[in-house]
Write a structure and sequence with these properties.
Elements lengths: L1 E4 L4 E5 L8 E5 L4 E4 L7 H11 L5 E5 L5 H4 L2 H8 L2 E4 L1 H9 L7 H6 L16 E2 L5 E4 L2 E7 L8 E6 L4 E6 L18 H12 L5 E4 L9 H13 L17
Parallel strand pairs: 4-5, 5-6, 6-7, 11-12
Antiparallel strand pairs: 1-2, 2-3, 3-4, 8-9, 9-10, 10-11
Helix pairs in contact: 6-7
Bound molecules: zinc ion.
Zinc ion binds next to loops.
Pfam families: Lactamase_B
Keywords: Hydrolase
GO molecular function: hydrolase activity
Length: 249
């Protein structure tokens, strides 16, 4: 539990919850941001982890990659506790604002045992709808929004640039080794996934910070290229979800 420093401006928070995605803190000096926020099941530990980075009092933004509960469920608590601005795509915002358990597949995932039986997706206010190409300053950092549908509708990736290194926070789009997360849900589209993989491969990212599993701290372009190349051959890249793997996603 706590926080792992990735470089001068990025941290990985460990909430200790097996239900949560990876949560990153981007520290821009005069301001700081969260990229995704877990389910909310470990809200206290999340805040403790952020406090451990020294960023809690400077936290100004939460960037949400997509509306699945393991990434977005914690937004309500962070917003209530810290009053930070929640930024998300139009699709994510629509689901978050009403706590939509159908659009977000929370009801299906709960029935499948991915979340505890008593888990409910908390509605959360979204302060700003962001779209492809939008750029935000977080202190000294620049955060650029990249639309990346495929895993689900309205998925966004965020490029965090400290002027020296570019870290692409990929949510559930592309993972280490160029892997993907394809699920039998209505808004998962291999076709859109393929187009997303091509676009992300052109971004010259140094680091690939996914929502689950291993981080890629150097030469991320190779992992992104691998996914794009596989899709180019009309072969979906390896899936992070396996038949014997009950990881929440
Ligand atoms: Zn997801």
């Amino acid at each position: 539990m706590g926080a792992r420093r990735l470089n001068d401006s990025l941290w990985l928070i460990d909430t200790g919850s097996p239900y949560d995605c990876h949560v990153y803190v981007a520290d821009g000096g005069t301001g700081a941001a969260l990229i995704d926020c877990g389910t909310g099941l470990a809200a206290e530990r999340l805040l403790e982890g952020i406090e451990g980075t020294g960023c809690l009092d400077r936290l100004s933004h939460v960037f949400v990659t997509h509306y699945h509960a393991d990434h977005a469920g914690g937004a309500a608590d962070v917003h209530a506790e810290r009053g930070v601005r929640v930024l998300a795509s139009a699709e994510t915002a629509a689901a978050l604002r009403v706590g939509d358990e159908d659009r977000t597949q929370v009801a299906v995932a709960r029935a499948a045992g991915v979340y505890p039986a008593d888990y409910r997706f908390p509605a959360c206010r979204v302060d700003e709808v962001v779209a492809d190409g939008a750029r935000h300053e977080v202190g000294e950092l620049s955060v650029t929004v990249h639309a990346s549908p495929g895993h689900c509708d309205g998925h966004l990736c965020f490029m965090v640039d400290d002027g020296d290194r570019r870290a692409l926070c990929t949510g559930d789009s592309i993972f280490s080794g160029g892997r993907v997360s394809v699920q039998p849900i209505p808004d998962c589209s291999p076709y859109l996934y393929a187009r997303t993989s091509q676009r992300l491969a052109e971004l010259s990212a140094d680091m690939l910070l996914p929502g689950h599993l291993d981080l890629v701290l150097t030469d991320a372009a190779a992992d992104l290229a691998r996914a794009a190349e596989s899709f180019r051959r009309l072969v979906p890249p390896p899936n992070i979800l396996k038949a014997d793997n009950a990881d929440p996603n």
